[in-house]
Amino acid sequence: MFLVHPKRESKKEIKLFGAVQICDTAFLVYKNSEGNIVLKSGGDEKLQKRAVKNMLKKNPAVKQLLNKYKIKPSINTKTLKELAGGHMNETCNIAKGVYEILAGSCEPEIDEATVKEASMLHDLGKVLIPSKILNKPARLNKKEREIMNIHSTLGYELLKTQGVREEILELVKYHHQNLNKSGYPEFEHEFSQNLPLGMQIVSIADKYSALREARVYRRKLSRIESLLILYKEVREGKIHCSVYEALVKYASLYDSDV
Questions:
Q1: DSSP 85-106
Q2: How many CA atoms lie within 13 A of 59 on its CB side?
Q3: Closest C-alpha to 115, from 105, 132, 126, 102
């Protein structure tokens, strides 16, 4: 009888295929060379690093973007681990809640699964943003802000070669855009009507989740404080009033004012 060592999988052959939420926990979905699906909640930093390295190799546009801003390619898997355990999951919960409230009054042009998956993947690009900028305990200067702002494009480019659906890629790329087109990055094409509803949902969910979290440069804001800040954006034309009203309803039902 011969014992054969199982074939070691090449470090190149792992893809970050998407994300899924199970029992209110966000999991990153990986696919190996044999087509097998692996779910990880964000704790496996080695697997994350392999996946991001694979993305970097498959899309030269990522390195070109990093070179443009003189950023040394360095994978901050600790950031992804923290995002997976907190912000991406909470953003998904908020986006899901807002979607369900809006779906009761209109027929969205996008499905709930797409909104949820995009909201879990939207900040992936931050794994390539230098930690000294991500964790700076003060306001970013102009140059640092420019670098921070490319995280959405980096996320889009990283996921572009992984088999992620185009609808999700677009939401990842433009999750910092506003109703009045004052966000980033600039659109490569015009939309026939207002900013697509999916983008508005992921955007407001990301904003509200960020405001409700403690950051190195400020304390956690209360539900009322967060909603007042976002109401200012409604008045500035950045957020549609119906999307904001759906968030208010979600917050009153599911968010405690602490």
A1: HTHHHHHHHHHHHHHHHHHTTS
A2: 20
A3: 102
Class of 14-254 per CATH? Answer: mainly alpha
81 contacts 229 by C-beta, under 8 angstroms? no
d(CA 134, CA 198) in angstroms, rounded, equals 26
Of 229, 221, 167, give the one whose Cα is nearest residue 199: 167
Rounded CA-CA distance 57/161 in Å is: 10
CA angle (230, 113, 212) in 5-degree steps = 30
pLDDT in tens, 194-241: 678 999 999 999 999 999 988 877 888 999 999 999 999 999 999 999
| 0.85 surpassed by pTM | yes
